[in-house]
Design goal:
This protein is 16% helix and 29% strand.
């Protein structure tokens, strides 16, 4: 599935990094591993469990609906995600080839099933080991030699189906696994693989599970330095000139000390990802956006809704128990926050600190104020005017999870929220005539 416009990309970014602050394990998870997900037909999402494929729809509360066995995907040998192209009735996927490395394949929809499975023809890539000296393929280092060498993994689509993004382990890469893309050429052959970026995205660490939204927003997972542990989910904005912004980690509603990866969106609503965090049911579980606050309340007056300051809300879950200093791994997100706040040159902002429900109320009040002041100080350090920021503490009075029991639930309550507020308007002083009239 393709999410095609910059507007959609902006909405996705706003929801994932701001409004979606609560992800929970799906009740459809089992003790078996739920393996990588991909957007599929008619807004469904497909995933694999014990070599069998299943699909589900997104429920109204952004959860996982009943699972449906998917026979046409079962048995194709798909390894990881696949890319579904509805316009061309094709899917693109990775599986192990004869050379014991993963290659990219395509299949066409024929008579109710995926058929005509063929390996893609990609310039500069050979399925066989070349021994000819001075071969252009050998010089370019695309040929993967040696038993068990890896190739292409976890494809997704961009450019209206004319581009395939994927991760790969090439000798020409930067690290353990990097992000690449190939473009469809007029003769049906795909272009030589190109690295997505060798400055800020690809590095010495492992980068995997690329997903591009609206050709302007890249999601991926990485185990680079600064993660909370294992693989964390990042996003990077794609500029019009083809460069990428510095990757930003999603907040700890998504990222954890475990491996978190494979972000996917269903029918342009509902975000999902896979994690092997210990509170799950199996080795790898599906997590869905159980709560999000995007639309105004239905009973608000229409005029009130229009005058609302664009619903600006950032939820920052940055704090350990009894701590007011921010986790260093998250400081990079403040650069994005300042950039967003600067879009309101006359706006004033309230930073409210919150705590979990444990401990005395007066202690938590002071702790919440300290958390708000910490974030304000860091924003001012980044150049935002201090006189346009109001720091307040809410203590334990406004929990996201009112009856929190587990540590992940407590973590959601230990947060700071940044809201755009209407500036106070000073009323003009009454004239002498007006004063006389009041008398």
């Amino acid at each position: 599935m393709l999410l095609g416009s910059a507007m959609e990309a902006g909405a996705v970014l706003d929801r994932v990094d701001g409004s979606w602050g609560d992800f929970s394990s799906s009740d459809k998870n089992t003790s078996s591993a739920e393996m990588p997900m991909s957007a599929y037909k008619d807004g469904t999402i497909a995933f694999f469990r014990n070599d069998s494929a299943y699909t589900f729809r997104v429920t109204e509360d952004l959860g996982v609906d009943s699972l449906v066995y998917c026979p046409e995907l079962t048995g194709l040998g798909i390894d990881g995600t696949f890319a579904y192209d509805a316009a061309r009735n094709k899917i693109y996927f990775s599986k192990k080839g004869k050379s014991e490395k993963n290659d990219l394949y395509e299949a066409s929809w024929v008579d109710g099933t995926w058929a005509k499975v063929n390996m893609l023809t990609i310039k500069g890539v050979s399925a066989q080991t070349l021994t000819h000296k001075n071969s252009s393929l050998v010089v370019s280092r695309w040929v993967q030699q040696g038993r068990g060498a890896s190739g292409f993994y976890n494809p997704s689509l961009g450019k209206d189906g004319s581009r395939i993004y994927f991760s790969g382990e090439f000798k020409a890469g930067q690290g353990a696994r990097d992000l690449w893309y190939i473009d469809r050429e007029s003769d049906g052959v795909w272009s030589r693989p190109k690295a997505i970026d060798t400055v800020v995205v690809n590095g010495k660490a492992k980068e995997d599970f690329p997903l591009v939204v609206g050709d302007s927003l890249l999601f991926f997972s990485s185990d680079r330095e600064g993660t909370l542990g294992g693989m964390d989910v990042y996003y990077s904005k794609i500029n019009k000139n083809g460069t990428y912004s510095k990757p930003v980690a999603l907040n700890d509603a998504v990222n954890s000390s475990a491996d978190d990866y494979n972000v996917v969106f269903g029918a342009e609503k509902g975000a999902f990802f896979i994690s092997d965090r210990k509170e799950g049911k199996g080795a790898a579980d599906i997590y869905s956006a159980a709560v999000f606050h995007l639309n105004p309340d239905a009973d608000l007056d229409p005029e009130e809704v229009l005058s609302e300051p664009k619903g600006f809300l950032w939820v920052l879950c940055f704090f350990d128990l009894d701590k007011s200093d921010m986790k260093p791994a998250y400081e990079v997100q403040l650069d994005e926050l300042v950039e967003a706040m600067n879009e309101y040159p006359d706006g004033e902002f309230e930073i409210s600190g919150h705590t979990d429900l444990r401990g005395a109320a007066d202690y938590n009040q002071r702790l919440s104020e300290d958390r708000a002041k910490t974030v304000k100080k860091l924003l001012v350090k980044r150049g935002f005017p201090a006189n346009r920021i109001k720091a307040v503490g809410k203590g334990l009075t406004e929990p996201i999870v009112p009856n929190a029991q587990t540590e992940p639930e407590h973590e959601q309550n230990r947060r700071v929220e940044v809201r755009l507020i209407e500036p106070e308007v000073e009323q003009p002083a009454a004239s002498d005539n007006e004063k006389k009239g009041e008398e």
